Amino acid sequence: MLPLLVAQAPIDAPRLATVLQSPMAQRDIANEWTDAFFGGPVRLADGVIVQEAFLRLRKRDPEAHWGLVLRIAGPCVQRTDVLRRHEGMEITGHPRGGSLDEETSWSRREPWGKLAFGFAERDWNCLSSILIAGPAW
Asked: How many whole angstroms from its chain centre is CA 97?
């Protein structure tokens, strides 16, 4: 699924709905600067679940200012497997001790923007989120 999403960059709600095969609903957290869309849950072929897909788009220049967060559940996707498959990742964020849901983030820049993977303290070796963001986000 990740290669399909990246191939759609810049991501918008209709493209995301097509890839996830799930409707994206605009929610009231949208404001005069951004639009927000939510979708999910979606079960993938390997049993992994996209619990929630959250897409935020800046109203001005949405092709550069967009961010997609996928909350992951289901069978554990091991940190070692993610980092082996996506070489060149660096730690760019770490938990501050406020919650077991805080994540260690591994990310890298891509020609289309940024790719990041989050691993929550609650289950530090299993993937908990994926961020795909445009070049200006």
From this structure: 22
DSSP-derived letter for residue 6 is H
**Residue among 68, 57, 4 at smallest CA distance from 34:** 57
Check: CB of residue 133 under 8 Å from CB of residue 66.
yes
Q: Contact 56/71 with Cβ under 8 angstroms?
A: no
Per-residue confidence (pLDDT) for residue 120, from 0 to 100: 97
This prediction's pTM: 0.93
Listed in sequence order, the residues at least 6 apart from 28 whose beta carbon sits closer than 8 Å to its beta carbon are: none
Q: Taken in order 103, 108, 113, 117, is the CA torsion positive or negative?
A: negative
SS3 9: coil
43-92 pLDDT per residue, tens:
998 899 999 999 999 988 888 899 999 999 999 999 999 999 999 999 99
CB neighbour list of residue 13: distance below 8 Å, 6 or more residues apart: 24, 26, 35, 37, 55, 57
Q: How far apart are CA 30 and CA 90, in angstroms?
A: 31
